[in-house]
Automatic annotation (TrEMBL):
<dbReference type="GO" id="GO:0009252">
    <property type="term" value="P:peptidoglycan biosynthetic process"/>
</dbReference>
<comment type="function">
    <text>Involved in cell wall formation. Catalyzes the final step in the synthesis of UDP-N-acetylmuramoyl-pentapeptide, the precursor of murein.</text>
</comment>
<keyword id="KW-0133">Cell shape</keyword>
<dbReference type="GO" id="GO:0005737">
    <property type="term" value="C:cytoplasm"/>
</dbReference>
<feature type="domain" description="Mur ligase central">
    <location>
        <begin position="112"/>
        <end position="287"/>
    </location>
</feature>
<keyword id="KW-0131">Cell cycle</keyword>
<dbReference type="InterPro" id="IPR013221">
    <property type="entry name" value="Mur_ligase_cen"/>
</dbReference>
<dbReference type="GO" id="GO:0051301">
    <property type="term" value="P:cell division"/>
</dbReference>
<feature type="binding site">
    <location>
        <begin position="114"/>
        <end position="120"/>
    </location>
    <ligand>
        <name>ATP</name>
    </ligand>
</feature>
<keyword id="KW-0436">Ligase</keyword>
<protein>
    <recommendedName>
        <fullName>UDP-N-acetylmuramoyl-tripeptide--D-alanyl-D-alanine ligase</fullName>
        <ecNumber>6.3.2.10</ecNumber>
    </recommendedName>
</protein>
<dbReference type="GO" id="GO:0008766">
    <property type="term" value="F:UDP-N-acetylmuramoylalanyl-D-glutamyl-2,6-diaminopimelate-D-alanyl-D-alanine ligase activity"/>
</dbReference>
<keyword id="KW-0547">Nucleotide-binding</keyword>
<keyword id="KW-0573">Peptidoglycan synthesis</keyword>
<comment type="similarity">
    <text>Belongs to the MurCDEF family. MurF subfamily.</text>
</comment>
<comment type="pathway">
    <text>Cell wall biogenesis; peptidoglycan biosynthesis.</text>
</comment>
<dbReference type="GO" id="GO:0008360">
    <property type="term" value="P:regulation of cell shape"/>
</dbReference>
Length: 449
């Protein structure tokens, strides 16, 4: 249950209809294409639609009240007793309602941001914390100005810990989300190059990520990447691999199914591959410790990870090959991190990289694409690229290593045909690009049906 129309009167004084009846509202509807029994309809003005034109459908789908932008005429067909709350802006009102719900439920709030690893760290945190607390967390990647409120509205009233992923591609966006959520804990996973097109520099990205402290309370705590020089001196707990961090991962053993590492003498086994995920895990175990969990409880959570797909997701490929689907998103930092993982992968020795364009890298996109080649070594047998700017990757690899097979494609089908011709039992393929490239289509084409 989210609220009642009676409670909403205290937030939104300008209303019509039988709001005083205290109608129970059990969910929020922002999409009339999805049923919402006893829901509050919040019409959002988007890129393709203005949802104000769907009020009739909303009522049909189960809405029992609605927010309404004051500068838009209310349709004549609206029943006189149907509660409508008039607001300046429905999105801002939705965020205010979410803040009110958090104040009512009073969970411990954990906010996670960073250029890479937000979803992974959020999923890890949820898997660990739910061992001890009633935990609600962001589903998938619903992490923006709309996704965060929707996550809050879906929170059960008995929630003890709320884990929110906070994304951004412009300055100021995380500040809004942090002030909405008022986190007790914040995590900054890393500072990469994601969305640098809009931010202009990594320094600006770091500043934007630190907006996560905007809504902090007096006792709130930041846990962050201590290896990142742009964050040096920030108040909080530093995590990472350097000797000077507060929580250092040591004695790291990377293997094909995950890793083993120690932090302050406690040993952890993480069933997630990649050294970058060791650091993500240190954020989580540090958070869990602050919430009173012991290493055994944390390890139990690591052993029951429920992860969102398309993040180094391993599937069986044609000819008995292994395929790692890392197609949700990509930036130079994350692309280099997974290439390092592929070089260390032991189960297969014929290693193929399929790399697509990375978006929103701005003016320096081509040189940032080329920089990915710095991680490629002759351990990699083939690099196939697709898109516009990723040609810079294969060109730079070819310049560095004549032994590595390189090819660039504009069309997925051509790349798929070449890739199928290369596959052998001993092959391992890693596929990665920005979301907009939709390279999961390549993964599908080379995996066993
Ligand atoms: C606004 C919205 O929710 N849109 C969703 C909608 O898109 P559609 O094009 O159909 O509608 P419009 O947005 O034009 O319409 C406005 C509203 O009208 C509703 N509506 C439409 C038709 C209809 O018949 N009835 C209706 O009621 C509609 O529902 C809208 O509310 O549907 C799509 C398909 O389901 C959704 O994909 C689309 O969702 C958008 C993309 C969205 O922002 N969803 C959030 C809930 C979300 O969190 N999505 C995440 C991705 C977030 C992300 O990209 N994060 C970035 C950081 C970026 C931060 C910020 N600057 C930003 O730009 O987002 C990151 O790097 O992680 C997800 O989908 O995974
Ligand atoms: N700490 C990290 N450092 C560098 N790369 C990372 C890190 N964590 C994850 N990655 C890489 O980034 C990819 C995306 O991970 P994830 O989806 O968790 O990040 P995200 O921040 O949620 O991304 P997005 O901004 O697209 O939502 C992973 O598959 C992996 O390749
Ligand atoms: C999906 C959104 N979070 C994102 O990462 N956009 C990049 C730049 C893309 O479109 O792939």
């Amino acid at each position: 249950m989210i609220t009642t129309t009676e409670t909403m009167i205290s937030l939104f004084h300008d209303f019509k209809g039988d709001a005083h009846r205290g109608i129970h509202i059990e969910s929020v509807m922002t999409d009339t294409r999805v049923p919402g029994r006893k829901s509050l309809f919040i019409p959002i003005v988007g890129e393709n639609f203005d949802a104000h034109s769907f009020l009739d459908k909303a009522i049909e789908q189960g809405a029992v009240a609605a927010l309404w932008q004051k500068d838009i005429d209310l349709p004549a067909y609206v029943p006189t007793d149907f509660p409508v709350f008039f607001v300046e802006d429905t999105l801002t009102a939705m965020q205010r309602l979410a803040n009110e719900y958090i104040r009512r439920v009073e969970p411990t709030v954990v906010a996670i941001t960073g250029s890479n690893g937000k979803t992974t760290t959020k999923d890890m945190a949820a898997s660990v914390l739910r061992k001890k607390f009633r935990t609600h967390y962001t589903k998938g990647n619903l992490n923006n100005h709309i996704g965060v409120p929707l996550t809050v509205f879906a929170m059960p009233e008995n929630t003890e810990v709320l884990v929110l992923e906070m994304g951004m591609n412009r300055a100021g966006e995380i500040e809004v989300l942090s002030e909405l959520a008022r986190p007790h804990y914040g995590i900054v996973t890393n500072i990469g190059e994601s969305h640098i097109e809009h931010l202009g520099s990594r320094e600006n990205i770091a500043t934007a990520k630190l907006e996560i402290t905007a809504g902090f309370r007096e006792s709130s705590l930041l846990i962050y990447d201590g290896d990142e020089k742009l964050l040096a001196g920030t108040k909080g707990i530093t995590c990472g691999f350097s000797d000077y961090v507060d929580r250092k991962a040591e004695n790291i053993l990377l293997h094909d199914e995950g890793s083993r590492f120690q932090v302050e003498g406690s040993t952890y086994d993480l069933p997630l591959v990649g050294k970058h995920n060791v650091k993500n895990a240190v954020y989580v175990l540090t958070l869990a410790e602050k919430l009173g969990m012991n290493p055994e409880e944390v390890q139990s959570g690591f052993g029951e990870l429920t992860m969102t797909g398309m993040r180094l997701e391993k599937v069986l490929g044609l000819q008995g090959s292994h395929v790692f689907n890392d197609t949700y998103n990509a930036s130079p930092t994350s692309m280099k991190a997974v290439i390092d993982f592929l070089k260390q992968y032991q189960a297969k020795s014929h290693k193929i990289l399929v790399l697509g364009d990375m978006f929103e890298l701005g003016y320096h996109s081509r040189e940032l694409h080329a920089s990915v080649a710095e991680s490629v070594t002759p351990d990699i047998d083939a690099v196939l690229s697709i898109g516009e700017d990723s040609r810079a990757i294969t060109e730079e690899v070819a310049r560095r290593f004549s032994s590595v097979l390189t090819a660039h494609y504009k069309e997925k089908q051509e790349l798929i045909e070449k890739l199928k011709s290369l596959l052998q039992e001993d092959s391992v393929v890693l596929v990665k690009a920005s979301r907009g490239m939709k390279l999961e289509e390549v993964v599908t084409a080379i995996t066993n049906e």
